[in-house]
Amino acid sequence: MANDPNIDLVVSSIRVDRHGGSIIPSIKANKDVFVEWPIEANYEKAKELTDLVRQHNVRNVVGLQGGYGAVATKVRSMIDNGDIGKVESSTFIGKARGGGIVSEHISYFVDRKVGGNLFTIGFGHAMEFITKGDPLQLRILERVANPA
Fold first, then answer.
1. Fewer C-beta neighbours within 10 Å, C or N terminus of the chain?
2. Strand (E) positions, the chain?
3. Is-contact 27 58, C-beta < 8 A?
């Protein structure tokens, strides 16, 4: 893909720890890139990608898709149309299902090196849905019921 002259934009929508490897060749080939949230497994790797993007002067987007689902779109429409009055504040309560057992197909969620887990992915998508990208005032209370 990186060397195909007919491709202008490369999208990476795979496991977080594989984002960089999937887009680095395209960035070096001066292709624009779209990477789903979060950009990489940790700050250092994200900074490396950001620096590479700047070095090659390509356009890049780190995007979220949660705000475009059917429920989010409907709720946003109801708020924008004033169907439920003026929203002054809201409360979000999220709960991870399960317990100490993780299904094999998502076992990478408990590997910190991967960088993708219920907080970095789930919380990011929830905040995008709730805020519509607007600045917010946030208080977080987190409780881990089943520490690893």
1. C
2. 9-12, 32-36, 60-63
3. yes
> For residue 1, what are the contacts with CB-CB under 8 A and spacing of at least 6?
7, 10, 25, 26, 31
pLDDT digits (tens, 9 = 90+) for 31-88: 999 999 888 989 999 999 999 999 999 999 988 877 778 888 898 899 889 998 888 8
C-alpha span between 143 and 148 (Å, rounded): 13
The residue whose two tokens read 């299904």 is 103
From the number of C-beta atoms within 10 Å of its C-beta (0-12, 13-18, 19+), residue 134 rates as exposed
CA distances from residue 15 to 23, 44, 50, 57, 132 in whole angstroms, order as listed:
13, 17, 18, 25, 24
**Type of residue at 44:** E
**pLDDT of 145 strictly over 80:** no
Q: Which pair of tokens denotes residue 62?
A: 């780190």
